[in-house]
Amino acid sequence: MTKSEIVQAVYSRLGGFSKKESAELVDLVFETLKETLGRGEKIKISGFGNFVLRDKRQRQGRNPQTGEPILITERRVLNFKASQILKQALNPRDNMVVATAVTE
Amino acid sequence: MTKSELIDAIAGRGELTKARAEMLVNCVFDAMTEALQRNEGIEIRGFGSFTVRPYKPYSGRNPRTGQPVPVPAKRLPFFKVGKELKELVNSSRQFAITGGDDSDDDSDDDIIEDDDEDE
């Protein structure tokens, strides 16, 4: 799926937006997400997942090809944590039941 | 930023009613969820890509009791940050990380799974 297919979904499902408007609005959604993360703010989309920021310290790494040690500089990284709802949507049978049973 | 804050931001910047902005945001994430359900990856230029990864069944453990628990095969979404966003995020180190902790939502890890703290 590409952005243009998301645009198509917005255009055909919502109604009232032209193709061009739909495209601009989908761009606006991703731009807003990007800008938010770009100022160090995490994002939580309930039912979908969280975009989490983490600061990593400088550490010693290795070039996996050559085995050569390299210094990995300190950095900020973005991780996505899928929500339980999204995980369940991808696993339609009752195979999340085990997890639930343990929590109770 | 929460989903409702995103909706507010979109309503403001896109000059939409809140109800319309909410429909828009829901539609975007619904369409993405449906693609993942079809086992289809999603690629958003400049943002990143989502893929579905299959996981084999394995024997996990309840960390509280130490009891072995069978973990069935499953499919999980995986996000790979796009180059542009990766660089943008890294250059935001001048700002403190904000947006609250990660626990007050519905995305808590399965209790029987290892937490993949660091990749």
UniProtKB/TrEMBL annotation, chain A:
The keyword Transcription regulation applies. GO terms for biological process: DNA recombination; positive regulation of metabolic process; regulation of DNA-templated transcription; regulation of translation. One of its GO terms (molecular function) is structural constituent of chromatin. Transmembrane segments: none annotated. The keyword Metal-binding does not apply. Gene3D superfamilies: IHF-like DNA-binding proteins. GO terms for cellular component: cytosol. Keywords: DNA recombination, DNA-binding, Transcription, Transcription regulation, Translation regulation. SMART domains: BHL. Belongs to the bacterial histone-like protein family. This is Integration host factor subunit alpha.
TrEMBL record, chain B:
GO terms for cellular component: cytosol. Signal peptide: none annotated. The keyword DNA-binding applies. Keywords: DNA-binding. One of its GO terms (molecular function) is DNA binding. It holds the Pfam family Bac_DNA_binding. Residues 95-119 are annotated as: Disordered. Residues 101-119 have a biased composition (Acidic residues). SUPFAM superfamilies: IHF-like DNA-binding proteins. Belongs to the bacterial histone-like protein family. This is Integration host factor beta subunit.
